[in-house]
Amino acid sequence: MSARRLVLWVGMATLAAVGGAAVARRPVPEGLVDWGLCGRTARRLAGEPVAWRPDPELTAHYDGIVRRSFAAVSEYTGEPLELGSDEVRVLGRADWIDANLVNFERLLAPLAVAYQQTRSGSGALNRVAAHGTRFTVTGQIGLLLGYLGRRVLGQYDIPILDAEADSAGIYFVEPNMARVAAKAGVDLEALRLWVALHESTHAYQFRVGDPPWLRRYTAGLIEDYLAEAIRALESGERLGQRLRDMWRRFDRDDPAGTGLMRLALTDAQAESLGRIQALMTVMEGYSNHVMRATGRTVIPGFDVLEARMKAREQAQGASSRVLNRLLGLDLKLEQYRIGEEFVNAVVEARGLAFVNRVWEGPEVLPSLEETRDAEGWMARVEEDIP
């Protein structure tokens, strides 16, 4: 039995156990996610031997790094970029997990309400399904945040669905930063600036345009995705067929259909997810392009840093790759590669000013297919959007 089959069978066996007779006798659980258990699971998996607390001097130091990054990104893109009301935060793993639990809870709030309404019955099958779903979603989020909590270096955290918020957070997970620098044999200060350049480019993306539109557009994509999830819940669409589809795609190494977080996708959700994936591919690829273009001018020994960080990405063991597949994280790495190849091809053919047109509005964004066809995208833009 292959490693991926073994892991998936273990997961299915666990879900089956949850659906046993003992569960059927319990009352319907409150809520789609047990957020307390989710946080405890994530923090335990992430591991933090001692409680980590930020040093005000270190936070001030990172603030300076970010301002330097903003200046470099501004010079390269030709657009003014200042820190403004965005907040630089230096976090430990547990703090990063807590910050993202808030994001997940806000994101899933509409779905949780609809879910609770559909699970109000008292039958045994209803209780089994409710416990199984709650267990699965809680475990997925806890596993995802715990796994990423050990690996994430930086994050540009803008509250997409909070229309009242007017600022974002720029996070740096210092324990991970220090560990990666030591294991990869790279200068810690160079790594900090390398990560800051990537996150600063995300700040540029959300601020560019007249008026800035990316946040509103991203929120619309997410809301469409959640609305379809709510519709599927309310119509009682069955999970069994989607489980079989997931197994079929996982077994044939189809990355577009794997990942536990994709378990309950309907066709309409898959379409929405395609638009989200296209946007993220361009965003991440553009950020990597800018990070490398600016990094070569501001980071001493940049080529050595790049080579060692790429080697780190490629050094994952078989178990890590299977876990990445189950969580859908390898698709994220593929987005970086495809997106950067797209941006590089456009810059080489037409220059940076042309690729910057992607930030003019949603109609200029490439489709998912166009992210693999830079020539096709350039031809469309030149013909349809003069």
Strand fraction equals under 5%
> Biggest β-sheet, characterized?
3 strands, mixed
Mean pLDDT: 80
Coarse structural class = mainly alpha
Uncertain runs are 1-29, 122-128
Mind sketching the topology for me?
Layout: H1 3-18, H2 21-24, H3 35-46, H4 56-77, E1 87-91, H5 93-118, H6 124-149, E2 154-157, E3 169-173, H7 174-184, H8 188-207, H9 214-235, H10 240-251, H11 267-298, H12 302-314, H13 318-327, H14 329-350, H15 352-355, H16 374-384
Parallel strand pairs: 1-3
Antiparallel strand pairs: 2-3
Would you mind describing this structure in some detail?
With 386 residues, the protein is mainly alpha-helical. The chain has one domain (3-384). 68% of the residues lie in helices and 4% in strands. It has 16 helices and 3 strands. It has helices spanning 3-18, 21-24, 35-46, 56-77, 93-118, 124-149, 174-184, 188-207, 214-235, 240-251, 267-298, 302-314, 318-327, 329-350, 352-355, 374-384; strands at residues 87-91, 154-157, 169-173. The protein has a 3-stranded mixed β-sheet. It is globular, with a radius of gyration of 22 Å. The model is unreliable at 1-29 and 122-128 (pLDDT under 50).
